[in-house]
Amino acid sequence: MSKKISKKALNKVIWRNMFALQWSWNYETMQGSGYGWCTIPALKELYDDPEDLKKMLKIESTYFNTTPAMSHLIMGADLAMQEQFGTASEETITGIKTGLMGPFAGIGDTIFLTIYRAVFFSIASYIALNGSAVGLLVPLVMGLIIIYVRYRFTLLGYYKGQQLAQSFGDTVSKITECASVLGLTVVGGLVPSVVSYSTDLVFTLGEKEFVVQDYLNMIIPSLIPLLIVFFSYWLLGKKWMNSTKLIFVLLLIGLVLGNLNLIFPGA
């Protein structure tokens, strides 16, 4: 694409992300709606065709969740890819967002939540308990430093994303494929760690007892959680289904399966 994102639009993206990323947080897309809203100033400069703009905004508003401070790096790289490849970057940015939000959340939560809060707020509390007003200033000063770091993160992601896009401009299809594989790998790794379900069915043949779960683990570990995820994705593809309804469907199925011995006594 020949169009470039102006400094003014990029700054708007940064400040929106800084303070409004989680304003519309919800259980269906988490930070997705906020992420999409943050990118609007840049998308409007990149796409003149309303259909292209609508398409990319829809992609940007899909499920997303990471430590807010780390989202700047992802958003910067995302916009750099779109600036270079336009709508052809659809699968690439989806893969980048899906693949990086998990690892970045782990890093960001450790640095910006656990370490930052534990260390600096402890220092501030200790100073304040000793009667010094300086203890009030420590969180304020550190907050301003965090804001500056987040601002620089977007620029870092954007300019490094530009370099990546320009260096591999002739192999965008490979980047897209790698990003997609990365995203799917992360999702696949999340399945057994987030979805937990096992069956306690046991069959007795003669004097030998067969534990169904043990045999399922020999076929594919975490097979039942995987099937639950596939079933959930299939349901979410229906127009009448959303994440809230899906929760109730899974609860109902869980209640029925968990009480089969009450429904069919002696089974």
Write the layout of secondary structure elements.
Elements: H1 7-20, H2 32-46, H3 50-60, H4 68-85, H5 90-129, H6 134-167, H7 172-194, E1 202-205, E2 208-211, H8 212-219, H9 223-236, H10 243-258, H11 260-263
Helix pairs in contact: 1-2, 2-3, 2-4, 4-5, 4-6, 5-6, 5-7
Task: Tell me what you see in this structure.
With 267 residues, the protein is mainly alpha-helical. The chain has two domains: 7-188, no CATH class; 212-263. 74% of the residues lie in helices and 3% in strands. It contains eleven helices and two strands. It has helices at residues 7-20, 32-46, 50-60, 68-85, 90-129, 134-167, 172-194, 212-219, 223-236, 243-258, 260-263, and strands spanning 202-205, 208-211. A two-stranded antiparallel sheet has the order 1-2. A hairpin with a 2-residue loop joins strand 1 and strand 2 (208-211). Helix 2 (32-46) packs parallel to helix 4 (68-85), helix 4 (68-85) runs antiparallel to helix 5 and helix 5 packs across helix 7. The longest helix has 40 residues, at 90-129. It is globular. The mean pLDDT is 82.
